[in-house]
Amino acid sequence: MSDMPTVLWLIETAERALSAASVPNPRGDATELAAHVLGVEVARLDPGAEIQEEQAELHKELVAKRADRVPLGYLTGRMHLGGIEVAVAPGVFVPRVHSELVLAHGAQALRAVTTPLVVDLCTGSGAIALAMAHTRPDARVHAVELDPSALEWARFNAARRAEAGDTPIQLHAGDATDPELLAELDGQVDLIMANPPFVPDGVQLLPEYGKFHPERAIFSGSDGLDVIRGVVPVAGRLLRGGGTLVIEHGHFHQETVPELLQSSGQFMEIADYCDQDRRPLYATARRAR
Ligand SMILES: C[S@@+](CC[C@H](N)C(=O)[O-])C[C@H]1O[C@@H](n2cnc3c(N)ncnc32)[C@H](O)[C@@H]1O
Predict the structure, then answer these.
(1) Does the C-beta of 152 come closer than 6 Å to ligand 1?
(2) What is the pLDDT of residues 155-209, one digit of tens each?
(3) 152 Cα to the center of ligand 1, angstroms
(4) What three-state secondary structure class fits 282?
């Protein structure tokens, strides 16, 4: 019998190391890293397969970095959202699985709309915009990002998705709070999605976010609402009557974001929704007619 370690051994050893470092999803991360090292999708991992010494060594190195709380996406260089893979690296936000709910809500809002006009504000890697373009090939999708480094990744991902056959999206370097932003689309947009930075300055976060992510992707003023406060009037201006806004926020913004939408006087049917763990995650509203 061979004494080469197996994939299962690799995963279980890494799981113990990641558990000891209090990494939130040790088994899942150990498995993702194993798939990355072996160059296969997670679903194709064979637990009984033997692994080479160099592969075990590389896995160990990556697990040590993950134990230091480097985000998983920065180690594998990729993240999945809405059925697509996007490339990520230090300098751009790693899309969160929570955004699947924002996407699903956005897709639902477009069910009865043909050739919808969609805007993703604060697009980062482009994940939300590109996932929507993938789901709705008939959509005209615009995406806006302020940070040049993030915008580079959005460009890279947009080119890759277009090569894969998705409808190309239009990327814009810009400030999502700019009163003149995308003025040519005023009153025409069917759906605006946004995952802006929303953490109050100075709040202590898990190192994945507080230490390794770009500050601009995470923090947004003393109450975390600086960007959201600027996005509300921009969304009100861009949306057509009856158009939908879906905006992520901090779990502590469950009341303040709906209040901001209400007090703008531009929105109706304002609601707030929770994530899978029942923590407030995003607000939705429709542009008053
Ligand atoms: C939480 S990340 C979300 C990225 C992406 N939408 C996602 O879900 O993966 C917020 C993004 O907003 C960008 N950003 C921050 N302030 C902005 C502003 N005023 N205008 C446009 N983008 C902004 C950051 O650079 C970052 O890429």
Answers:
(1) no
(2) 999 999 999 999 999 999 999 999 999 999 999 999 999 999 999 999 999 999 9
(3) 13
(4) strand
* 60 & 124 share domain: no
At which of 37, 68, 99 does a domain end? 68
**Are 200 and 259 part of one and the same domain?**
yes
Structure tokens at 100: 């699947």
The mean per-residue pLDDT over the stretch 99-118 comes to: 97
- Atom nearest to 198 CA in ligand 1: 1
DSSP 207-233: HHHHTTS-HHHHB-STTS-HHHHHHHH
Q: Looking at the structure, do residues 175 and 205 belong to the same domain, yes or no? A: yes
In this predicted model, what pLDDT tens digit does every residue of 235-248 receive, in sequence order?
999 999 999 999 99
Token pair of 260 as six digits: 């901001």
Find the domain containing 52 and state its range: 7-68
pLDDT class for 4, splitting at 50, 70, 90? confident
> Ligand 1 mean position to 124 CA, how many Å?
5
Q: Could you tell me if residue 77 is inside a domain? A: no
Which atom from ligand 1 is nearest to the alpha carbon of 120? 6
Count of domains observed in the chain: 2
Ranges of H-type helices in the chain? 7-20, 26-38, 53-67, 72-76, 99-109, 127-135, 148-163, 207-210, 215-218, 226-238, 256-264
Q: Of all protein residues, whose CA lies closest to atom 12 belonging to ligand 1?
A: 122
Question: Would you say residue 74 lies in a domain?
Answer: no
Judge if the beta carbon of residue 226 lies within 6 A of ligand 1.
no
Is the CB–ligand 1 distance for residue 243 below 6 Å? no
Q: What are phi and psi of 134, to 5 degrees?
A: -70, -40
One domain for residues 33 and 90 = no
| Ligand 1 closest atom vs CA 150 | 27
Q: Is 147 in the pocket of ligand 1 (CB under 6 A)?
A: yes
Q: Return the ligand 1 atom nearest residue 227 CA.
A: 19
